[in-house]
Amino acid sequence: MFTRRAALALLALPALARTARAEGWRPTQPVRIIVPAAPGGTADISARLVAPYLQAQLGQNVVVENRSGAGGVIGTQEAVRATPDGHTLLLGNIGPQAIGLSLYRNLPYNRDSLIPVGGTVRGPNVLVVHPSIPANTLPELVAHLKKNPGKLSFGSPGVGQSPHLTGVWFNQATGTEAIHVPFRGAGPAAMELVAGNIQFMWDNLTSGIQQIKAGRVRALAVSSADRNPQLPDVPAARETMPELAQFDVNTWFGIFAPAHTPRPVVETIARHMAAWQETAEVQARWREMGGVALRGTPEEFTAFVNGEIDKWSNVIRREGLQLDVG
């Protein structure tokens, strides 16, 4: 018999469905955010900014785990192999998620192994030198390098990372030679630069700006097409020499999920990240770091990542660069 109670229950179903959709997916255990780099760099900073916000929204612990090595491949591979249920995410970046796809011959994943969920921040790299280097401008550094071919070393957070390829492109465009010294993340590389164990590096501005402001290193140029508001007196590299007229690099970071992660999981994480980007704390942090929020839906972030993959594929193929995963 169709009772009044049953009728009321049926009327309530659409509202319940709307509520379920609004709340979205909820994790049933702690969520891991894997950072494929050492502590101290922009990837690590991004993960540790977003983790407490997601934890508050999802009602489960969200922990950050650093898995550095092989230019981000080790950490990425761990995320790719994880169960695609939303309990493991990757704080990826331009290195392993774009450049590496063309740079490495034997990469254990491809562009379809991960789902781009949402960006965190983007920004230029900045050319920084140890104070002992007799160069106050980029052309002066080029002149110094040409007088000392193969004698100076430049650091990076790992082979295949954006700062590494930025340095390679810089050396090729200016006809200079320097020894590349890879580290397991931007933090360790910056420490070695401050210590004078390497002479220069292209660092993510978002992680290197504090060293610059403290006077521990000297900034000569940014890799983007235009100057950065946080360092208005530092020129864009393309301003300084005709050889660098086409030089334009921005590094970026964002959350990825293993392939086959259910759509409701992706949408829930993306929705919370969009709200997180609007918080005053995050906006202030990006300004402080010299970065720009990388906003967008999963579809928009996917289109952005695919564009970066294609861009670096062309650069790497043109330069004839190819490596094996170590």
Automatic annotation (TrEMBL):
Listed Gene3D superfamilies: Bordetella uptake gene, domain 1, Periplasmic binding protein-like II
Q: Where is the signal peptide?
A: 1-22
UniProt keyword terms in alphabetical order = Signal
Q: Keyword Thylakoid, does the record have it?
A: no
Tree of life domain:
Bacteria
The record, for Pfam families, names: TctC
**What CDD domains does the annotation carry?**
PBP2_Bug_TTT
The family note in this entry says: Belongs to the UPF0065 (bug) family.
Q: What is this protein called?
A: Tripartite tricarboxylate transporter substrate binding protein
